[in-house]
Amino acid sequence: MKYLMPLIISFITAILVAAGTFGPTRLGATTGITSGSALPGLSSAAKTPEQAVDKLLNEIQRRNWGVAYAQLVDAGNIDEALFTRDLTGNNGSLRTLSGLESWRLQPLHATNDEAQIRATLRWSTAVGPIRDVRDLKVLRQDDVWKVVWPVPTFPNLPAQIVPVNYLRWDLVTPNGEGEWGDRAVDAPHVRIVSMNAIPYQNGCVVMGEVVNEDTIPAFVNVNATLVDGTGKSIAEESSFDKISHILLPKQVSPYRVDFPNISLQEVKNVRMDAKATLAPTSSDPVIGVMNQKVETDSEGRNVLRGSLLNQSGQTVNIPHVIATFYDSNGRVVWVSDGYVDRPLLPQLPEPFAVEIPGPIVGKVQNYHVVVNYYNIAKS
Amino acid sequence: MLVLLSAGLTGVCLAQGADLRPPAALTAGQPTVIATSGSGEASFYLLGPGHTFRKQVHLGQEIPLGIDQVRTAGRYLAILCSANGCRSALFYVTPASPASLSFLAHPSRVPVKQLDAISGVAFPYDKFHNLVLAPVTIDFQLKSSVGDSISRPTTTQNGVAWFRANSSNQAGTAQLVAAVGDLSVRRVVQQVASDPCNLRVKGQRTAKGILVETEPVRDCSGNPVPDGTVVTFTETDPAGKSTVDMPIKQGVARAQFLAAGPAIISVASGVVMGNQLQLGGQ
Fold this sequence. Notes:
A: 379 residues, mainly beta, 4-stranded antiparallel sheet, 13% helix, B: 282 residues, 5-stranded mixed sheet, rod-shaped
């Protein structure tokens, strides 16, 4: 009897260890919690296409690049460093500040030896979650399903000299001496040129455009205060990152202020306030927004697609696209934004897409895109 | 002291006769004496807006007040207390002649051709920093960089004078001067170009696509718009729409588009639209 209990405990422990070692991996693991097989290499082989993709994404989530690479069907065709760079990012891009949080798999078609799976990846990044949709081909080899990873392209930037002679504005701060009234430099003059408030989902959205009317750059922030019928303020919010904060002279930026929990029916009035301060800045880099078109993406969503062209000589680490959509009367009906997770290298186009909500797309007659950016060296 | 002060202010021991005779008019920083009558010892108190002191005096002698004791303009209360009781007298110290000017000019930058856009406010002070409340004529002058000048003498009211002026038609530095006698204070106001006017774009096909360029960008008064001002070029072709926010460099803004087919080019700066250009395909 005195050996029975230890034997039972040892037996159960052995079963649990075996189950943990050879058992199937979990789906959609939580960030920060290790998932997948306890001992890499000892896990069971993928018996279905979904299982193959899931195992691969599990290793990517755990940043086991070598193990993930070994699971590819075309491991001989794609360089491991290239595969890793595709997932970890480079040049200080947003991908370098990201981690794979979760994913959703959708089989598109399958035969006995080949399948296609749509993987909707959700990356947690420094600026919030980002979706990334990849259609992955999966092949069966020796009764094991393996993923064909699309070969990423990283263009080689030729050595060149790009002359840059744009203006730069510096700010001189007074040293505290001098007479009264002699030290003031007025803040830049900015003006809100349009404003529109619409209901959206369970709340409301205030949006429009702001222009820097001055001859110097401005750092701009737009605040909106919702006022009810009694004149009482019910909510106050700023545009946060839904605006291009640095505005050069005569530059126009859209803004959007979200109130997710306030119904527009409660709102009688909206008080707008554009705050502008002096900001040292440069008119470089210039980023062109090329070949913009409203299209439907592979998931049936309406998106504005285009490509960004960095016309300067410096790399832009994190581009941020903000699009304004107008109706036939020129009224702003929506402001959409999105971050691009690859860097903008000089003179090389980089695709982008921002979503247009379904109820809005029918009203859209025109659009305008501005590009904001964040550089690691400047932040 | 507080008791005496409250007594003096409430009139319990008001001055009687000519026992304490302060000067009828006194200018800030001007030494003076207060005559007394009677005999014996007494305590003298002077309560002013910026200075308070007590000293023992002999009645019948004059009490000297130095520069530092009457340098602040305002209402003074002199109190003399002897064995027979207290007597007090009020007198006023007025500011001396202007010795400095505080001058606020607004704004520091102003677009050209704006009505009443420039304002200046001046406050004259004497050498002890008392605001001069007596009417003083301040000569406001606005001198533009091209030599235009306006002068507007203005009399202060309650220690302040102000003026307004239109900005001139030409961009450049304007000097705003406020002067009283030999005293003058200078401020600089930048008069800058207004919104672009008659914004026009021209374009040509090149080996790389389309090169578009504005004509020299000027405002409606002919002033060149400052470099760095953003001009938005929009190119529409069958492949979609392309836009570039291009800063003006040396008076013009240029952009390059990669379109090969027919394209429509339009241009805008801020809320000002320019012309539209149609280019055929290659």
